[in-house]
From TrEMBL:
Short name of one Pfam family: FlgI
Extent of the signal sequence: 1-21
Quaternary structure and partners: The basal body constitutes a major portion of the flagellar organelle and consists of four rings (L,P,S, and M) mounted on a central rod.
Gene: flgI
PANTHER family reported in the protein's UniProt record: FLAGELLAR P-RING PERIPLASMIC PROTEIN FLGI, FLAGELLAR P-RING PROTEIN
Top-rank lineage group of the source organism: Bacteria
Protein name in UniProt: Flagellar P-ring protein
Compartments, as annotated in UniProt: Bacterial flagellum basal body
Similarity comment: Belongs to the FlgI family.
Role description: Assembles around the rod to form the L-ring and probably protects the motor/basal body from shearing forces during rotation.
Keywords of the record: Bacterial flagellum, Cell projection, Cilium, Flagellum, Signal
Organism lineage: Bacteria, Pseudomonadati, Pseudomonadota, Gammaproteobacteria, Alteromonadales
Length: 368
């Protein structure tokens, strides 16, 4: 009876460590070598812009527009192409392995000229090529821009980057991507999404326990080779669904274009002092007209009207905000405290990067 009681106490003591263990499938933390994305890139034109496209100084857009119109038997002179409703863009996308003709993929569009905004534009049909020069997809569609830009009388109101946009399912695959999951000897290689010795050992041990008829070889911290006679696609499906104990990675994802910060709330932060002071520089230019010929000054033949600009410079250091963290805390508490100090998101991004460099933040920062 005493042994049963001791075993029960030992089991209850282990419950906290078990509850904090993260369990995932092999498919969540690794991939089969041969399953990878291929980068595609293309050049195209965006039309339908409300005067925010490329100017005539960007010759590439004019040349592309003339070539496009001539392909439709419309002959125009160089001087007639002056529309600012068109912009030249670069198109990027990733096509997955084993993609078949007719599949849809997402694309990203970015201006390469002096266009001011791509909002409301439509991407014209453009081929997407791989590094080997082969076209694998065709892209077109309405662009979605995560921001805005309004101009009136040289006054500008803008939010985020409006010269970059996306088109969900905006490209159609026209050529399949060939790939191979098996080596010449019939073996497969499991590649971890992030090399980690502990995670590699957990996966290898689970494979040896679940599939004793296969040989599991530990290549390095990010690669495991599985070999054996009769290894098939059905076995690969079972391997992908195999559950393993994973190592949690502390990461902070930052999108500088939109100012979005995503991270786990329990990432630890050591004792730190943060001092924030914003410097605002304002330069105002006021035109003054000097008119020499008036009723007080005798008219002179060599006198002329001159516009003189008076410049006023104002520097405002703003109110300095100080945050002191005496004890170890989490990233959620730090960000919440910085918010209460009215520190903008983009400054918080800089603060997080400074915390990482100072060694007070135990996480990887991924900037998109």
């Amino acid at each position: 009876m005493r042994r049963i009681f001791v075993a029960f106490v030992a089991f209850t003591l282990l419950l906290p460590s078990i509850s904090f263990a993260s369990i995932a499938t092999v498919k969540d933390v690794a991939r089969i070598q041969g399953m990878r994305d291929t980068a595609l890139v293309g050049y195209g034109l965006v039309s339908g812009l409300a005067g925010t496209g490329d100017s005539s100084h960007f010759v590439s857009t004019s040349q592309s527009l003339r070539s496009l119109l001539r392909s439709f038997d419309v002959n125009v002179d160089d001087a007639d192409v002056r529309s600012r409703n068109v912009a030249a863009v670069m198109i990027t996308a990733n096509i997955p392995s084993f993609a078949e003709p007719g599949d849809k993929i997402d694309i990203r569009v970015s201006a390469i000229g002096d266009a001011r905004s791509l909002a409301g534009g439509t991407l014209l049909l453009s081929p997407l090529k791989a590094p080997n020069g082969t076209s694998y997809a065709l892209a077109q569609g309405q662009i979605t821009v995560g921001g805005y830009r309004f101009e009136q009388d040289q006054n500008v109101v803008a939010k985020n980057h409006v010269t970059v946009g996306t088109i969900t399912r905006g490209a159609t695959v026209e050529r399949s991507i060939e790939g191979s999951l098996f080596d010449d000897d019939g073996a497969i290689n499991i590649v971890l999404n992030a090399p980690d010795i502990s995670l590699m050992e957990n996966i290898a041990s689970a494979l040896e326990q679940q599939f004793p008829r296969f040989k599991v070889a530990r290549k390095h911290a990010g690669k495991i080779k599985v070999s054996g006679s009769g290894l098939s696609l059905r076995d690969l499906a079972q391997i992908e669904q195999l559950k393993v104990h994973t190592t949690e990675f502390a990461r902070i994802v930052v999108n500088e274009r939109s100012g979005v910060i995503v991270s786990g709330a329990d990432i630890p932060v050591s004792r730190v002092v943060i001092s924030h002071g914003a410097i605002s520089l304002k330069i105002r230019s006021i035109p003054r007209v000097s008119q020499p010929n008036n009723f007080l000054i005798e008219s002179q033949s060599n006198a002329e009207t001159v516009v003189i600009r008076e410049t006023e410079i104002d520097v405002d250091e703003g109110q300095q905000a100080v945050y002191i963290n005496k004890d170890e805390t989490t990233i959620a508490e730090v960000v919440s405290s910085l918010r209460k100090l009215n520190i903008p998101t983009r400054d918080i991004i800089s603060i997080l990067e400074g915390l990482k460099q100072s060694g007070a933040l135990y996480a990887d920062i991924i900037v998109q």
